[in-house]
Predict the 3D structure of the following.
Amino acid sequence: MNSWVTKCLFLLAMVLIIRTLLLPNTISFHVSKNNEIELLKQGNVRMKFLEVPQIVWGLNNQKIAFARACLTSRMLNRTLLMPSLSASLCYKEMDRLQPISFDKVFNFERFNSLCDGFVRVSRYSDVRNESNLIEVQKGSGRRWTLERDLDQLKEFSNQDYDAYETIRVVGKNPFLWHDHWPVSDYAKVFECLVLVDEISKEADEVVSKIREFGSETTSVSSYQKPYVAIHMRIEKDWMIHCKKREQRLNMSSICSSKEEITTRVANIQGLKPQTTLYLAVANELLEDDSVLNGWKQGMHPVDKKRLGLTEIYKNHSYLIQSAIDYEVCLRADVFVGNSYSTFSSLLVLERTQKMIKMGVSHPCGTDVRWPSYAYNIEGESGGPRRWMTNFSDSSLQAISYGSNSVSC
Ligand SMILES: *[C@@H]1O[C@H](CO)[C@@H](O)[C@H](O)[C@H]1NC(C)=O
Ligand SMILES: *[C@@H]1O[C@H](CO)[C@@H](O)[C@H](O)[C@H]1NC(C)=O
Ligand SMILES: *[C@@H]1O[C@H](CO)[C@@H](O)[C@H](O)[C@H]1NC(C)=O
Ligand SMILES: *[C@@H]1O[C@H](CO)[C@@H](O)[C@H](O)[C@H]1NC(C)=O
Ligand SMILES: *[C@@H]1O[C@H](CO)[C@@H](O)[C@H](O)[C@H]1NC(C)=O
């Protein structure tokens, strides 16, 4: 009798195990069925795709490259296949770029729902026939002009290419492609890039640490405590790069020393004493504390090290660290950056967009929320110059390669 019960239980257990093993298939079947229905609803009976090379370099160069790939796919009336980003910052060694899937950094579903009707990203599993593909080399070199590039894109949107489910662009990373779109189109794509929860939670933690730090120095409750974020580009390799650039352009307002930054920040009108300054600096600068010295009385600088966050940051790849820093600067009450930095420029773009959405009609005016400044250009009373993004610009040139036109 006992052994009979045991046998029954054993059989039951086996049935359960087999069911569980089979279940994932059933689920994925349902998902792909839903996808198909979704596609039919959109009237795209046969979706077509664009595939681009792995996206590389700094976080913001990657965001621009991604947006350019999206806008290209929009022009070709295709959906962008979810590209690989790069977790590490390697300029030369391509094999050490550590590909990281787009949806490990940005929320895939949110992207498509926010950008619905404008651009769309698809998963590779949406492709029905992987061999129905054409590989296309994008032109390059001096003689490959903006016009020729546009002609090539027009050709790809031609009906001859309709037969191919996927167009795979090979060659240069999209950041280096020619630009055919106005700033406002890029801004629409950037708006849809929302960090995945794990990363944005870490940014929340950093922001609350900064605000708590502020409340230790004053009596304001920590939640309300405002902070100024300063994106300081003073690392050795940046200084070498920007000095060269100053020589080439015969200008003197690209590089700013630490002294110039502290002096200009000290002269920002309207910053009350007991202000917390969050210094967004490269990790190499965290090695010594000198970056925290020399600020005006009443301004309290903090960096990741002083906040006790180096361990959290160290746990992440370069890309994720940048994404957290970016978010922290985006939420700052005041932002001060360098107008020749892509990181700073994209921040100002998103901050300007936020102000315009809140109904601020003069983003350069005094007494507005979320002002941004460029410390490399002198403004009023020896302070940094106010800075906003001009959304009427017809290309992203100013932002992607840096400029001193700050529209204020
Ligand atoms: C883009 O695709 C949609 C649906 O597939 C189609 O209705 C539309 O005509 C296409 N537009 C162009 C310019 O090819
Ligand atoms: C997939 O595409 C290739 C190339 O266009 C074609 O030869 C093949 O018949 C297609 N397969 C199916 C199952 O449609
Ligand atoms: C550089 O600019 C200065 C004034 O800003 C000017 O006097 C000088 O001639 C310029 N040099 C060159 C090589 O263009
Ligand atoms: C770092 O990551 C490991 C594994 O992902 C985790 O166990 C650990 O708690 C993390 N450390 C910090 C300080 O977040
Ligand atoms: C913004 O850009 C447009 C087009 O390039 C230009 O006409 C306008 O003067 C610019 N506005 C500012 C404030 O720079």
Remarks:
- The CA atoms of residues 286 and 305 lie 7 Å apart.
- The chain has two domains: 27-179, 197-401.
- Residues 197-401 form one domain.
- The chain is about 40% helix and 15% strand.
